[in-house]
Structures are given as C-alpha cells and as structure tokens.
Amino acid sequence: xxxxxxxxxxxxxxxxxxxxxxxxxxxxxxxxxxxxxxxxxxxxxxxxxxxxxxxxxxxxxxxxxxxxxxxxxxxxxxxxxxxxxxxxxxxxxxxxxxxxxxxxxxxxxxxxxxxxxxxxxxxxxxxxxxxxxxxxxxxxxxxxxxxxxxxxxxxxxxxxxxxxxxxxxxxxxxxxxxxxxxxxxxxxxxxxxxxxxxxxxxxxxxxxxxxxxxxxxxxxxxxxxxxxxxxxxxxxxxxxxxxxxxxxxxxxxxxxxxxxxxxxxxxxxxxx
Length: 272
Fold this sequence. Notes:
The chain is α/β, with parallel strands linked by helices. It has 9 helices and 7 strands, in the order αααββαβαβαβαββαα.
C-alpha cells in the first residue's frame, strides 16, 4: 500500500513541478515529467528506508516489547509490504473467515525465506508473531524489527532455552498480546517432498496456552527467486482448518502434529 502512496505523490509532484517551474517548452519535454515522477517516487522510498534504519537504532534486541501495538510496527509492516510489491509478490488469501476471534497458534509449511514475510503481512490485523531460529537475531536492522513484531528466537540446540521460548510463546497468547505462528517442520524444506516430518514439540505452545491451532499453507514463494521484479508471482496463503482449543487439549502433541500435517499435505497436493 505504501508503495502506491509514494507513486501517487511522485506522479502529482512530477506533474506539478515542471509547469510551476516553467520547464515545459513543448510536448517533447514530456520526458522531464517522467523523469521527475521516477525521481520523486524513488526519493520517497529511499527516505522511508533511511527513517526505518534510524528508528531501528532505538530498538533494543535484548528487550521484548510490552505490546505489539507499538510505533515501530507500522514502519515495519509498510516496509515489508513495499518489499513484497517490489519483489513482484501478489498475495492471495483464502479462509480468513475461519480465523478465531481469540488469540491462537498458527502452523504452516516452510519452503522459502519469504514464507514468514508473506504471512506476517497477510495476517497483519491479527498481530501474529513468528517463532524463528536463533540465528536470525544476528541479521542487521531486520532483527531489531523482528523483536518489535514479537518474534521469538528458538535455539534448536539448547533444550532448556527452547522450552523457555515455548513458554514465552504460550504466555503471549494467554495474555492476549497476540497470536503465534511456527513452522513445525523445524527448518526450511529444500527437498522435492511437499512437507518434512513435523516436530511435535511445536504444539506444546497451543497446549500450554489452551488455545486453538490454525492450520494454513503458503504456496508459490519459492518461485519468486526465479524471476523477481520482472515477473509478478502469485503467492497463495490458505487458511485450511482450525483445531478447537478443547480438541488441542484432548490430543497428544504427536497426534496434533500428525493430524495437522495431513491437513496441510492434502491442501498442498492441489497445487502440484
């Protein structure tokens, strides 16, 4: 959305300035308008990025936000949205009507580094925070905004630390701070298989929070890298099913993993 706003402002400025400054001698000077539109639009985008970088300097990566409704969120969301537009990503979401009115845990497949970006933008109204691998805390600038978006960083090599992260994720849901999303495959799927085996421990979040589990899939993001910017890519996000909180409590985490994996697999097979 923000990219379109900047483009509109660029068009208005590009049309007004040449005439106000008496730069239009003839129709042949129309190239000046085109050049100014591009310059103003690009200038606004660059200014946006500069402001975003400056704001990130005030973010402490070691301090979790008290709320996800903070001043940094609109900047992060507009920047991610603009990034996806520039990358040529068109997101199509189905199943929004299935989402619960209460905070929930979300599970999805993981085939690309853009999975979480597309999902965070698509579900922005629901304040969804992703559980990410601990290595991502080292990413310059981006990691600081991830913290403010509520992202939690999971250490897959340290069981005690992983349990703390799971408990923190459950607390976020129980307190109403926001919903939490995690990829139960545990890592990015680079194989030909539609899904990797699921880690049942991921579902401890929902069981501790006593909340519903929303099952969704992301399809198409791994195609973006083949022709970014030049050709637009449709990314399909499908909210397939919701496992009610009572059912989550009845089933063991392994049973939840098997059931939700089967649901995802059945939906992904439609795209093959």
